[in-house]
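As a warm-up, study this chain.
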Amino acid sequence: MNITGETRVLGIFGDPVRHSLSPVMQNAALQRAGIDAVYLPFRVRSEELAGAVQSLRALNLWGVNVTIPHKEQVLPYLDALDPLAARIGAVNTIVNRDGLLTGFNTDAPGLLASLAEDLAFLPVGRRVLLLGAGGATRAALVALAEAGAVWIGVANRTRVRGEQLVENFRAVFPGTEFAAMGLSTAELAGVFPAVDLVINSTSLGLHGEGFDVLPWHRLAPRAVVLDMVYSADSTPLVAMAREHGYRVADGLGMLVGQGEEAFALWTGRRPEPGLMKRTLYDCLGVQNWHLDST
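Now compare it with the structure written out below.
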């Protein structure tokens, strides 16, 4: 890579950010496309977020991805929001056009792409349970409701936050039934038998934590599981789902899907099909990446 004074800078803001694979796949796509740009990880603490966003203008960065814990907190520091990002209430991609910072959400299309490609799952007419109630959950909820899911449940440790989340969208998506519940074995056992898809949309598993409350014996054999967390090894949720015989995917496919959308927003070009995913497989080693697609 030949860095010059003309090289554009992209990146990712998050805390933690060391684990991010976005630099690997984005830099591969930039180089293959012959675009003079580099993508870098930036650890940004919550108290530093306002200054970090302002630095996009000061340093003329091309744009950044935004990850945990900043997807919702970043909104007040932007000049404009894409309609989808505004509906979701969370941003994972910022584009800088001559100092005008616009927020987008590519998690939603990235999720749908992963479900279709990695799990052969289409949301229309299906029932989905989301674990969590943060920015990633909001993106998943909007994507699934727009794609025709008939029931979406939100299970969160703080039940009131899940209730507030679904209440915000009941009028927006009248064709979808919503429910909120606590993240307890008893409450999950009541809805698991009718669920077609379980999604972990929290950061739980990022450091090896597991869900010890899931009543796997109540989940229908037809159901599939998606863990938005990704790891060089199986996440605990992926390992448990596979152990119980369920088709499961981790966050690689969604990472790739949202990354391809972000690349197009920044550069105006689509990355080479399949390049980002192949790059991540090569980086991690196929034998170490557990992803069931059939």
